[in-house]
Amino acid sequence: MSAMMARMMGTSPGISSSPSIASSPPPSSQSSSLPVRTIPGSYGWPLLGPISDRLDYFWFQGPETFFKKRIEKNKSTVFRTNVPPTFPLFLGVNPNVVAVLDVKSFTHLFDMEIVEKANVLVGDFMPSTKFTGDLRVCAYLDTSESKHTQLKNFTIDTLKRSSSIWVPTMVSKLDTMWETIESDISKSGSAAALLPLQQFLFSFLTKCITGADTSTSQEISKSGFTMLDSWIALQVLPTVKVGLFQPLEEIFLHSFAYPFWLVKGGYNKLVEFVEKQGTEAIQRGETQFNLTAKETVHNLLFILGFNAFGGFSIFFNSLLSSLADDKNDGIQEKLRNEVREKIGTDSSKLSFEVVKEMELVQSFVYETLRINPPVPLQYARARKDFKLASHDSLYEIKKGELLCGYQPLVMRDSKVFDNPENFEPGRFTQEKGKELLNYLYWSNGPQTGSPNEANKQCPAKDYVPVTASLFLANMFQRYDSVTISSGSITAVKKAS
Ligand code: HEM
C-alpha cells in the first residue's frame, strides 16, 4: 500500500498545481499494530433491510445523516450497511457495502493492488451501456483492462494538448457569461446563476476537449447543455437524492432505471456534432491510441458530458455558494486584493502560472473541494482478501466485497483536519496547509498524487482546481464584489 501511495506522490503530467511537498506518510501506512475487529453493522433481513436503509438514505435521513447515524450506532467509521438502489426493480443489484468513512480507511479505495474498479463508478448498479454507444467507457474500466490504459492516456493527452487554448477560450466564454448575467440583472433585478454557468461550461469545455466549436450549430449551441443534463440525470437518478416531494421521489425516481430511448434523440445529435466537428480529436484517438472512431467519440462525449460538464456544474455552483456564505464574510475583499495585487484588472495577464501564485485563491478552491466534494461517493471492490485499517482498528475484507466511501464525511475527519466542520478559506495556505493536500481526495486520490494508467485518479486532478482559480481571478478582475443569494446573482459591482 505505501509503495502505491509513494508512486502517487510524483508530479502530474501537463500542468501541475500541486506544490512539491515532502510526502508525509499516508495515514494508511502504519497499521500493523492495530487490533483486528469484526466489521460492525448488518445488512438486515433480506429485502426488508435494503428497503429500510434505502428509505433512510433518500427520505427519512438523507445521505449525510444516514452515514453519521450509523457511525454513532456502530461506534466505528467502518461498518456494514446497504446503499440504494434496491428492490423492486433492481433485482440484480447487490446493495451490501462496507462503508469506509475516515481518511485512513478511505485511502484503500486508491490502492489498485487490493481493489478493482470495473463497473462500480456509481456502486453495484451500473447504468445501461446504451447511454454510451453500447460501450463501457473509461470511468467504468478497471486498471487491469488494456482499454483503460489506452483511454486514460488518450484523456491525459487531450487535456495536455488543450492547455494552449484553455485560458483564452475560458476568458472569452466567461465574457459572454458575465454579459448575460449583467443584462439579466438590469432587466429583472437578478440572474439565476446555473443557466449561464452551464452555457459557459458547455461551450468552453466542448472546445477544449473535443476541439468542436458549439457556435457552428445553432441547435447544439442553444440546447446542447440541456441534452447533456438530461442524459446524465437518467443515468444517475436511481442513486441520487433529488429532494422532490416524498413518497413521489421514491416511487418515480428511485424504483426503476429510466431507459436510454428517452434521451436518445439529444445524445445522437451530440454524437453527430462531435463526429463532424471533432475530427482532429477522433483521428488522434485512432492513430495514436489505437482506439476505434466509435470508442473515441463516445468516450469524448462521456469525458465532456459526465466527467467535465457534470463535475464542473456541481463544483462551480458550490464555489459560488462558498463566496456567498455569511460565514465567509470579508472573503471576497481578501480574494480580490490578492488577484489585483498579482495581475490588476487586465484579463490578458491570466495564466495557469499566475493563479498558482495566488495562495489564498487556491486555498479557497481546495477548501470548497474539501467541504463539498463534487462527487460525494466512491466505490471499489476487493480484488483479494485483505486487512483494512481505520485509525484505530483492522478489519478483514473478503475478495468481492464492495467498499463505499462517502467523501463529505471523510473530508471532515477530525484526526486530520482541525475544526473540520468549519469552512476556513486559508486552510491550505503555508507549509502546514500544503501538507494537508496529501489528504484532499475529491479526485479519487490525494491532491499530491499523479493520475496515470495504473490508477483511477481523475486525469483532471490539476485542471479542476486551477480552472476554478482562473474563474475566481477573472471574476475579481472584473468586479469588486458579487452579491449571490440562493443560487442567484443579484448585484455586481464593477471593478473601480
Ligand atoms: C469538477 C470537475 C471534476 C470532478 C469533480 C471530477 C471527479 C472525478 C472523480 C471523483 C473520479 C473518480 C471516479 C471513481 O472512479 O470513483 C474521476 C474520474 C475521471 N475523470 Fe474526473 N472530475 C472532474 C473533471 C474532469 C475532467 C475535466 C475530465 C477530462 C477532461 C475528467 C475525466 C475523468 C476520467 C476520464 C475519469 C476516469 C479515470 C480512470 O478511469 O482512470 N474529469 N473524476
TrEMBL record:
<keyword id="KW-0479">Metal-binding</keyword>
<protein>
    <submittedName>
        <fullName>Uncharacterized protein</fullName>
    </submittedName>
</protein>
<dbReference type="InterPro" id="IPR036396">
    <property type="entry name" value="Cyt_P450_sf"/>
</dbReference>
<keyword id="KW-0349">Heme</keyword>
<feature type="binding site" description="axial binding residue">
    <location>
        <position position="458"/>
    </location>
    <ligand>
        <name>heme</name>
    </ligand>
</feature>
<dbReference type="InterPro" id="IPR002403">
    <property type="entry name" value="Cyt_P450_E_grp-IV"/>
</dbReference>
<dbReference type="GO" id="GO:0016829">
    <property type="term" value="F:lyase activity"/>
</dbReference>
<feature type="region of interest" description="Disordered">
    <location>
        <begin position="9"/>
        <end position="35"/>
    </location>
</feature>
<keyword id="KW-0456">Lyase</keyword>
<dbReference type="GO" id="GO:0046872">
    <property type="term" value="F:metal ion binding"/>
</dbReference>
<keyword id="KW-0408">Iron</keyword>
<dbReference type="InterPro" id="IPR001128">
    <property type="entry name" value="Cyt_P450"/>
</dbReference>
<dbReference type="Pfam" id="PF00067">
    <property type="entry name" value="p450"/>
</dbReference>
<feature type="compositionally biased region" description="Low complexity">
    <location>
        <begin position="12"/>
        <end position="35"/>
    </location>
</feature>
<dbReference type="GO" id="GO:0006631">
    <property type="term" value="P:fatty acid metabolic process"/>
</dbReference>
